[in-house]
Amino acid sequence: MKNRGSRHLWRRAHSPIVRSRASTRARRVVGAGVLLAVVLTVFWTGVAQANAPGPTGVIHMNAVLNADQTVTVDASGTWLWMFSLSDADGGLHATVNAPCDHRSGVGWGVMWGDPQDSGFAEAYHSKYQVQTVHMGSRGVNPANTDNVVAYDRTDSCGTFIQTNEPAPGDGYVTGTWTSSHVYSSAAAVPPAICVVTYDLGFGKVPLPKYRNFSNDDNSVAWQMQDTGSWSMSSGGINCESVPPPHAAPAPPATIPPAKTVAKTTPPTPAVKVTTPAPAPAARQPAVTGPLAFTGFGPTGRLLTLIGMILVVVGVVFYFVDVRKAARWLLGL
What we know:
four-stranded antiparallel sheet; alpha+beta; five-stranded mixed sheet; 27% helix; 2 domains; 332 residues
């Protein structure tokens, strides 16, 4: 028989120790959870602030004043994505065998500063500050369709440049970007525009979340992370002044071809030549008197000779026994 009283007494005697051990285990579990949360937070913060591709600081622009008084601004430039050894910032490990480090490539968007089309307001973060920018176009003018991050579908990773730094086979990637925007008038054109380049994530094709302007892995966030500030002035690596618009060249005048009428000389009418009818032959006087036989001619005479010979031969065969005659002649 079990001694329930003794177990009860044991629990009463040792319960504070059991409670203390249980509390210690709970504190350890909670502490591990907090530590894991901190690690994940640091990890995701590092990914968000990863080393991103950046513009090279040269933006080529052409502003054209159209016939309807709208202004078309064409902008283009180059981007550069340097090699990075830091795994903490998600750096690009560009090598000969993996030029884009298994990433999708580089995308871009432009802050057009259009007062009629503010674009998409995005807040890009770093541990130093938050920068709100207005990216792309909302399509107020149907000609402006850049409502997501653009990229080169044929060569999203650009060109690999092998430098063998920091190790043989290492290097960096570079490429070009281009974009266009139509403003309602010359007065709507801002003093400067800015370009932002984006890391499109991993994989062969960028996922939709990386093509949204909310993608925080971009040149603005990286510049704030790297230098502590970001400026929209035209002297920054992201921005450039817009040149004054110039009139579009007039289309070449098309002169309709002159209607030419070929002057042709009418053909000379054929001269009708009337040949006079021959004069009627003089009527010969009628021949009178008996007709005279003029002979058969050479052919007639030959035929007559042959006919006479055949008649003679026929008479001989008729009246003479040729067989007997032959025997008589031969002396038989």
